[in-house]
Specification:
Elements lengths: L3 E5 L3 H12 L3 E5 L6 H9 L3 E3 L5 H4 L4 E4 L8 H8 L4 E2 L1 H6 L5 E6 L4 H14 L4 E5 L5 H7 L4 E5 L2 H5 L8 E4 L14 H9 L10 E5 L3 H9 L5 E6 L7 E5 L2 E6 L2 E6 L8 H16 L4 H10 L8 E6 L2 E5 L6 H10 L4 E5 L12 H7 E7 L4 H7 L6 E4 L2 H11 L5 E4 L12 H13 L2
Parallel strand pairs: 1-2, 1-4, 2-3, 4-5, 6-8, 6-9, 7-8, 9-10, 10-11, 11-12, 16-20, 17-18, 17-20, 18-19
Antiparallel strand pairs: 12-13, 13-14, 15-16
Length: 445
């Protein structure tokens, strides 16, 4: 008898899982409570996979041997409770796909920096001559790649939601970039639940595996003290010397693994800002573990140009620099962006608040922000938070309006920064659309 795989949610990860499930001989059923995009419907038809949209037929779902839940579906819905009650395993795409590949996996998680680190990791391994795929939160789903063009190496960007759905998944190298409050609406507004979720990346690692992490992050260091993990620890730090791992000394990145040393001046890094020094340290440490040549690592760090929608310089108009940081969907990401500003800044902020605490931004806003332009359906929290820091706070309802007002306020040698600190779902489909609209509005000035 064929095993029955039910896939909840027909987005990138859901459809990828359905393809892999079909290939591995499962009886597959895909169910989406919303509408399924035409492209994905075509794929499902092509593979002769049964699907439904705009509803969940409970009887068909509870008949599963295993359920893959897309990361956007909360754990708390009634359907998941029913599945749990029946003892049917509910897993993530990452867990499902990992069972059908023997690849060495570098898994990258953290509140910020994970996309940049994953892309840099992929670039390093590729330039180093390894056959490597990139998946997780980027590009084609991990499951689809395992089904259609499996590779011996993967760089996987992993969100806490994807890690919540793992049972046996264990990356050979795990990277934890940092932990700051994010998505607390999904974790009962308890920071400790979110922290535990991020650390699931290491829960199945053994003494043969590696855990690369930010030694300057108090949250990570305290958690490790209280919950030791089995894998070998390789910290990176901007402030402390480490015996094994990466640190900064006299403006040089130093990476030491078992007396094998790599030195690289930070002035040569193509990505600017302290947070990018950390991303470079994390990815380079992993590259060195995978035996990539030192000269290749240095060249990659000099040539890698980063991620769209992350501190992306768009245009200079009348000597005003317009910067797209739409990918900053939480306070900590915006902290890095404001910290990187070297002159007075008009800051465009707002969207769907995920339980944000804006206090850590006060010193930077006082120092660098000359005006705030709110771009959200409900801006009251931002106005209350920064009313005493900035005299000029303006509310807008569209990107075009926000950019036009910024154009009038910003003066020579200043910046206009879109760094929303919030999710985008009130006015935009996603942060990419928000970033694209910003770039279009700037180009039309």
């Amino acid at each position: 008898m064929k095993k029955r795989l039910v896939v909840l949610g027909a987005g990138e990860s859901g459809v990828g899982t359905a393809i892999l499930g079909k290939k591995e001989g499962f009886d597959v059923f895909v169910s989406d409570k919303g509408a399924i995009a035409k492209d994905y419907k075509d794929v499902l038809r092509n593979f002769e996979i049964e699907w439904e949209e705009q509803k969940h037929t409970v009887a068909k779902i509870l008949d599963a041997d295993v359920v893959m839940k897309s990361p956007g579906i909360p754990d708390k819905i009634e359907l998941i409770a029913q599945l749990n009650e029946k003892g049917i395993p509910v897993i993530s795409e990452i867990e499902f796909a990992s069972k059908y590949t023997n690849a060495k996996i570098v898994g990258i998680t953290g509140s910020n920096g994970k996309t940049t680190t994953t892309m840099l990791m992929h670039y390093l391994l590729q330039q180093g001559g390894l056959d490597v795929n990139m998946a997780g939160n980027i590009g084609d789903s991990f499951a689809k790649q395992v089904a259609e063009n499996d590779a011996p190496y993967y760089a996987l960007e992993l969100s806490s939601f994807q890690l919540d759905g793992i049972l046996d998944f264990a990356p050979h190298i795990a990277i934890l970039t940092n932990i700051t409050p994010d998505h607390l609406d999904r974790y009962d507004y308890k920071f400790e639940n979110y922290i535990a979720s991020k650390f699931r990346i290491a829960m199945n690692q053994t003494e043969e595996d590696y855990f690369i992490y930010d030694q300057d992050d108090k949250v990570i260091v305290e958690y490790l003290e209280q919950h030791p993990i089995r894998s070998r620890l390789l910290p990176f730090s901007l402030t402390k010397k480490v015996k094994n791992g990466a640190y900064l000394e006299d403006g040089n990145i130093k990476i030491i693994i078992d007396n094998n040393e790599l030195i690289m001046p930070t002035t040569n890094l193509s990505l600017k800002g302290n947070h990018n020094v950390k991303n470079a340290m994390a990815a380079s440490t992993a590259a060195q573990l995978l035996k990539i040549r030192k000269t290749t690592i240095r060249e990659c760090l000099e040539n890698f140009h980063g991620v769209e929608h992350r501190l992306e310089n768009v245009l200079k108009i009348n000597n005003v620099q317009y910067i797209n940081d739409s990918k900053a969907t939480n306070v900590n990401a915006t902290f890095y962006a404001l910290d990187a500003m070297k002159s007075a800044t008009v800051w465009i902020v707002g969207g769907v608040d995920k339980g944000n605490d804006y206090t850590e931004l006060y010193p930077l806003v006082n120092e660098k922000v000359k005006a705030i332009i709110c771009l959200g359906v409900d801006n009251s929290k931002i106005i209350n938070a920064f009313g005493n820091c900035v005299d000029n706070i303006i509310e807008t309802q569209s990107m075009k309006e926000a950019v036009n007002i910024a154009y009038k306020i910003a003066e020579r040698n200043e910046n206009v920064l879109l760094s929303p600190a919030c999710a985008s779902f009130d006015l935009f489909k996603n942060y990419e659309e928000r970033g694209r609209q910003f770039k279009e509005a700037v180009r039309e000035l």
